[in-house]
Design brief:
This protein is of the alpha+beta class and 958 residues long. 20% of the residues lie in helices and 29% in strands. The chain is built from 18 helices and 50 strands. The strands form 14 sheets. Strands 16, 19, 20, 23, 24, 25, 26 and 27 form an eight-stranded antiparallel beta sheet that branches. Strand 24 and strand 25 form a beta hairpin. Helix 1 packs across helix 11, helix 4 packs parallel to helix 5 and helix 14 runs parallel beside helix 15. It starts with 17 loop residues before the first helix and ends with a strand.
Length: 958
């Protein structure tokens, strides 16, 4: 008898189109198996030979959370390069490292959750480091380049499958899972959606991740824009992966739905395909989906649609065609090319903000390098573990020679004296291993525990000198002489155990709280403080078996006196006086005061670092400030000889900074966001109306500290020969840039536009395109930009669509948004302005031209917008140029809640008042109310709102 080989099922046939193969596989999966695929950790289906699959591998600027990997500059630093070719190559390198790491560790996933394309609208956002720019076009260009690198060039099979984060209008950590971003239609289309759209339409995106927040009163995980916008931009199947824990938030914190079955069904129908919830435990999501199916909230077709999208990604990754996958076995890890690329990226990310001629430094310069970040190479939450490390101090030693470089960190060196007269002591632990947090890799690094293998702190008569740093707002770190930070593990004891502050809840930060009875009789500590451990929220106490945090019911916290052995200012003064130049390296620790879950409260440099900077200035007039930070600061650059900024630059940061200071490389980074002069220039963090609040360089009317696109060079450049040609729906713009300096350098030429006589508020200046070019001394390059005329359009709320307005437009070319070298004006033929046909179409309440005191909310839980006064108070809406025809005699409003609606024309008296006297049963129970209104012709309509009503629509009759 001859055994017959079973036929190859169609889903295994690489000659068939993916769609047919997915159809076949779906037909073979049981309903239970399909449901199990909806969780982040999809199980294997052994009977079909299908492996387990996990969505989600962090790879923002290198492979994160899975141990050692090449670490590139933070995303905001990549944005500062303004170099799409460089960023594409970085994406390619990261994807090759993903493949290489997966080959030895199956926990590494090929569905990468990166990049972040949220716009850097507000510089106090805690996650500023994760975005590329405040400008949607620059963000889209950089993100598109990164995703192309992550995807690879093969037409069929992807090296990795990138997912964009975080859909949508997400710029605050404060209450991020319960706050709603009020986003008017123009801001939605012209600003927030634009960054995502360009990237998706470029064809290198596998999906998106909705954000934790709500938009216009509706959680992003049930957003109608997933269907109406995202999936309308492409014919490709897009996988929507929830953010961690967000499905449960729909009930638990947002209270948007009453049951988890209802919430899960709504998210799935809205377009969420993979649920990231409860870690690796899929049982709760599976039970919720099954419950929703039983209750008729979902259909099997809804489940099939989500599973199809996940399978589409898995097929594109070559999972079902291992012999045809061109990326199998092509991984590359920590190669010389990747190390060189990390150095190139770190160099290109450096922005020279000010220079009076002190830079570049001569080879024989005697340098004093000081500051809290001078000998640091900081990582953030989405970094891998460093394979290589270069600090500014190390870079300067290497470049200038250790004999020419003096160093002072600038920490306050202190002893902590107890009420018993003893001092806190760090015991020696010679047998301790040199562990680095996260080096072993973790699917969820938030679960990494603190070390308990080291002895806890004790007290004795001499104590241990600790390095105290105030990172701002009284948030302190304390470091032992061996370089380890004081930390608290799960057992509550203090140990010098952490290589750096870090973790989801940082356990290495403290606050000194003045003792309430510090000056009362009998208190021997005139400057006594309680030492609060911020991670646990408990005070430190001294026990017989060591120093620990007090238990929840204990009331005996230790009173400590801070004995300053040497202040940071004294240390700085000691090393700076004899130097030719002082380099102050200041900035932030990415895990403290501004990070995921925590927004900043001020633009100011922390007071500790301001003191160090002042001491350096006082000791030496030739002071250079190098800011290494995840976000902008408000500083006083006037007294400084030079100022540079770079994001945390990854493994090659120190070498890169030294090479720029020495002139080996001319700086050519450009600011990807506006640097404001002070906090007074900032709108409220939760005000997402960039038009009405005049936010970002697009609308800001003040004088910035440094403008968008700013960055200086050691060379000089001239611009000439601006030419514009309009044909076939495209503006062809060209110019010539010449290096008029005496060294090879990069220039970033930037093309902006401005509508000269717009009918609505338009950007004061708007980036259309840019080009980074390298030019030798005396060399020229002709640059050309092909700009579709659609780029000059705006979202016309009167017509509910994009419209190119006829009229003159300035075209501006230069080195920044403020440094314009060439300009011309072109007249574009588009559509003329027309009044709103309100008699025929009425008004959607959210389609206002101007507003004050209102926010946009959800009309229903599924779709639609309404407008309500903030906190139930009063608000005003203005709709320009409304055409009432020849005889409007009545008005009808559709609203929920209770309150009054007042209508007037052209700033005149109230002509109609409509009242919802009794509250409607719920916020989605709309009523219509009529009133007489006599109007004709074209007028500006003002609508006043009073009380907690939700206005959805206004109609007119006659």
């Amino acid at each position: 008898m001859t055994a017959h080989t079973p036929p190859t099922p169609p889903f295994r046939d690489p000659q068939l189109p993916f769609a047919k193969r997915i159809d076949d596989l779906l037909s073979r999966l049981t309903p239970e198996e399909k449901v199990s695929f909806l969780h982040q950790f999809a199980p294997a289906v052994e009977r079909l030979g299908i492996a387990a699959f996990r969505t989600g591998q962090e790879a923002l600027h290198g492979v994160a959370w899975m141990g050692p990997a090449t670490v590139f500059p933070q995303a905001v630093g990549l944005g500062a390069t303004w170099n799409t070719d460089l960023v594409r190559r970085i994406g390619e390198a990261v994807s090759k490292e993903v493949r290489a790491m997966r080959a030895r560790d199956e926990r590494v996933g090929l569905n990468v959750w990166s990049p972040t394309v949220n716009l850097l609208r507000h510089p106090l956002w805690g996650r500023n480091e994760e975005g590329y720019s405040e400008d949607p076009r620059l963000t889209s260009a950089i993100a598109t380049a990164y995703t192309h690198g992550l995807r690879g060039d093969h037409p069929t099979y992807w090296r990795t499958a990138p997912v964009l984060k975080h859909w949508l209008a997400h710029n605050n950590e404060t209450g991020r899972d319960v706050t709603s971003s009020s986003v008017r239609p123009r801001v939605l289309h012209e600003y927030d959606l634009r960054a995502f759209r360009g990237c998706v339409e470029a064809g290198a995106v596998a999906g998106v991740m909705p954000a934790y927040n709500l938009v216009n009163g509706r959680p992003n995980h049930v957003s109608p824009y997933l269907r109406e916008q995202l999936r309308a931009w492409t014919d490709e199947e897009l996988l929507v992966c929830s953010d961690a824990g967000a499905p449960s938030n729909l009930v638990d914190s947002e209270h948007y739905f009453d049951t988890h079955e209802e919430a899960t069904a709504a998210a799935l129908v809205a377009g969420v395909d993979s649920f990231t919830d409860h870690g690796t435990d899929s049982s709760k999501i599976v039970a919720r989906v099954e419950g929703a199916l039983e209750q008729g909230l979902l259909t099997p077709a809804d489940v099939d649609a989500a599973v199809r999208r996940q399978l589409s990604v898995r097929f594109r990754l070559g999972e079902f065609d291992p012999h045809y996958d061109p990326h199998a076995g092509t991984g590359e890890f920590d190669s010389p090319a990747h190390r060189t690329l990390a150095g190139e990226a770190a160099e290109q990310a450096i922005v020279l903000l000010r220079n009076d001629g002190v830079l570049p430094l001569a080879a024989d310069t005697r340098i004093a390098v000081v500051g809290l970040l001078a000998d640091e190479c900081k990582l953030d939450w989405y970094s891998g573990t460093l394979l290589h490390r270069s600090t500014p101090l190390e870079g300067l030693y290497e470049r200038f020679g250790a004999e020419r470089v003096e160093f002072a960190e600038g920490v306050d060196r202190v002893l902590l004296k107890t009420s018993a007269g003893t001092f806190l002591k760090v015991p020696t632990a010679p047998e301790a291993t040199d562990e680095v947090r996260g080096a072993e890799g973790a699917l969820d690094p938030a679960l990494l525990a603190g070390r308990t293998d080291l002895p806890p702190l004790t007290t004795d008569a001499t104590g241990t000198e600790l390095a105290l740093v105030d990172w701002g707002e009284g948030v302190l770190t304390l470091r032992a002489p061996d370089g380890r930070y004081l930390s608290v593990a799960e057992d509550g004891y203090l140990r010098a155990s952490a290589d750096q502050p870090g973790g989801w809840v940082v356990q290495e930060t403290f606050r000194l709280e003045p003792r309430a009875d510090a000056n009362t009789a009998g208190n021997t500590h005139g400057n006594g403080h309680l030492l609060l451990h911020l991670g646990t929220g408990r005070h430190v106490c001294v026990a017989a078996d060591g120093v620990r945090v007090a238990g929840p019911d204990e009331e005996n916290p230790e009173v400590v006196e801070v004995i300053v052995v040497e202040s940071g200012e004294d240390a700085v003064t000691r090393v700076t006086a004899g130097a030719d130049v002082v380099v102050v390296v200041a900035g932030n620790d990415p895990h403290i005061n501004g990070r995921e879950t925590e927004d900043r409260t001020t633009l100011r440099l922390p007071a500790h670092q301001e003191r160090l900077l002042a001491a350096a200035r006082a000791a030496n007039a030739r002071t250079v400030l190098a800011l290494v930070s995840a976000y902008p600061y408000a500083i006083e650059p006037g007294p400084l000889s030079a100022v540079l900024w770079t994001a945390h630059g990854g493994q090659a940061a120190g070498t890169a900074l030294a090479r720029v200071l020495a002139g080996d490389v001319s700086p050519a980074g450009r600011l990807p966001q506006t640097w404001y002069a002070g906090d007074a220039d900032l709108p409220d963090l939760l005000d997402y109306d960039v038009i009405g609040a005049r936010q970002t360089y697009l609308y800001f009317e003040g004088t910035p500290l440094f403008p968008f696109g700013h960055g200086l060079s050691y060379a000089s450049f001239s611009y000439a020969d601006l030419a514009v040609r309009i044909e076939e729906g495209t503006a062809h713009v060209s110019c010539t840039v010449t290096n008029t300096g005496d060294l090879t350098a990069d220039e970033v030429a930037q093309l902006y536009t401005r509508a000269v006589n717009p009918s609505v508020t338009r950007p004061r200046r708007e980036l259309l395109d840019h080009r980074r070019v390298t030019l030798a001394p005396g060399a020229s390059a002709e640059l050309s930009f092909d700009v579709p005329l659609s780029a000059f359009a705006f979202w016309d709320v009167a017509q509910g669509r994009w419209r190119l307005e006829s009229g003159p437009y300035d075209l501006l070319v230069g080195a920044s948004s403020a440094d314009v070298r060439l300009r011309t004006t072109v007249t574009l033929e588009g559509e003329p302005s027309a009044p709103r046909p309100v008699r025929r179409r009425g008004l959607e309440a959210a389609d206002f031209d101007e507003q004050s005191g209102v926010e946009i909310v959800d009309r229903t839980k599924v779709s639609g917008d309404a407008v309500t006064p903030v906190a139930g108070g009063t608000g005003e809406l203005i709709y320009r140029a409304c055409d009432f025809g020849t005889g409007t005699t009545g008005v009808t409003v559709t609203a929920a809640g209770s309150g009054t609606v007042e209508l007037s024309l052209d700033g005149g008296p109230v002509l109609a008042t409509l009242t919802l006297a009794a509250p409607t049963p719920g916020p989605y129970d709309h009523l219509t109310v009529d009133a007489a209104l006599t109007a004709g012709g074209v007028h500006d309509l003002r609508i006043g709102l009073r009380g907690p009503l939700r206005l959805a629509h206004v109609g007119f009759s006659g």
